[in-house]
Amino acid sequence: MDGSTTAPAKAAKTAGKPIWPKVPAEFVRAMLAGHSALGLAFAALIYLVCFSGSIAVFTQEYGRWEQPAGPVLHAVTPQAADAAYREVLAKNPKAHDLFIRLPEPAYPRLSVHGDDAKGGEHTYFADASGKVVAEQQTPWMTFQAELHTVLHLPRAWGGFIVGLTGVALLSSLVSGVLSHPRVFKDAFAFRWGGSKRLQEADLHNRISVWGLPFHLVVSLTGAFLGLTLIIVGVLALATFKGDTSKAYALFTGPQVKDDPRPAAQPFNVEKALTSLKTRYPEGRANYLYIEHPTEMGQHAGVNVVHDGRLSRGETVVVDGAGKILGEVGYESGSVGMRVLSTMTPLHFGWFGGWPVKVAYLLLGLGLTAVTSSGVAIWLARRRDKGRPAPRWERVWIAFVWSQPVAYAFSALVAVLSPATPPVAVWGLATLAACASAIVGTPAGISIALRRIAAGLLALVALAHAGFHFGTMADPVGWIIDAALLVTAALLAATTLKPKLAV
């Protein structure tokens, strides 16, 4: 027979057969067991890191919200930046380093950070002329950022734990996909009207699939950022015989020899910014880190960003006379350096403005819900098999809803009493909310904590608007207050129907 007659016959034999080879049942069971084990072992940490990360997307906006009186600046001259820096330097001429942050769309403030003579750290805001007008007081912004990045532990340990959590999340995502061979085929399949466990399982799987690209990106970049110390250590062992200083030198650019002799003049910010504008006419400097400002070895690392690029920016080293010494290579170096430059903006959604940040918030909360529902499904499965764990069901639902309560309460205290450490308030509120697991049902605990969180969020917005009414120069203050009220209303609405109780 010729090919024209055999082709239809072959097609008839293969009709209805799956294109992909069937996944062995043993492999699926192994992946499911690994997925469950990973999820349960790191459940609380993954949930906390995902929830805090969703909130941390708007870190810059929280700083503006906490101190909305301004001044709000969209741009400043090099002379103004130099004047602000010199005024702060005059408070402690022996300062080892100073950090200058220039206005940018996400944070339209001119600020200078430095140490005082007693070793205390301060950040000051300046106006358009460079005159210092206020000291930065943003305890809640700092609290929520550090909770996500280091869990308020020593930086090395906290970063390691957060990075390890990212690895666990990434592994859990991969094993979750491999344990459900039909997960993509059933991406829009829902079993409504059946058991609550099946509905939750479908929702868990659907959110996982819909947001999978985002979930993979944030878990991978989070793991990398958290495990930076270990990665640099491995790089040092593999390339520089364990000399970590040489490994870190790869990320600092041209080295400037330390020369402690007094300089004739302090580091000149105006000259540095003018030189950079000449070299990078399309770029925009957004911060300067000045080292040894009053010594002969004075120099600065200046970050230059180009709008429209997915990058943290290029770090340029400049000496005290405004001479450009070279670049680190985040945008002009190797492929590895360029990929490294995308890690932070990709992880936090700090690119593309408000639309991207809102998308990251919603997708992050979706990942948080996936973590929450995963544990709930495992507990429900135990219950269906005749091995219920009612105490753990109550503990888990109490922990899940403790975070909205604790975040809202810590923000309220920060508005009413800025001197009170927000992390202490958050910790006490978390413990108090988790203590509700002692009595009640999971549904009752969920409803009660959601109503408390909704009430607290509304109080935060009203208290903040009341305290700053008439002085709120930054519109972000009003925007966040309005968003808090809307969130409070939506959260309260979910408690009106029993089906939404958990």
How would the blueprint of this fold be written?
Blueprint: H1 3-14, H2 25-41, H3 43-56, H4 59-66, H5 78-91, E1 97-101, E2 110-115, E3 121-126, E4 132-135, H6 139-150, H7 155-178, H8 196-210, H9 212-226, H10 228-239, H11 244-249, H12 269-279, E5 284-291, E6 299-305, E7 314-319, E8 324-327, H13 335-348, H14 354-384, H15 390-416, H16 422-434, H17 442-468, H18 475-493
Antiparallel strand pairs: 1-2, 1-5, 2-3, 3-4, 5-6, 6-7, 7-8
Helix pairs in contact: 2-7, 3-6, 3-14, 4-6, 4-18, 5-12, 7-9, 8-14, 9-13, 14-15, 15-16, 15-17, 17-18
Mean pLDDT level: 88
Task: Write down the Rg.
Answer: 27 Å
Instruction: Name the shape in a single word.
Output: globular
Figure out the total of helices: 18
Strand order of the largest sheet: 4-3-2-1-5-6-7-8
Assembly form of the protein: single chain
User: What portion of residues is helical?
Assistant: 55-70%
- Low-pLDDT segments: 1-20
Instruction: Label the structural class.
Output: alpha+beta
Number of strands: 8
Estimated share of beta-strand residues: 5-15%
Largest sheet entry: 8 strands, antiparallel
Euclidean distance between termini CA atoms:
65 Å
SSE succession: HHHHHEEEEHHHHHHHEEEEHHHHHH
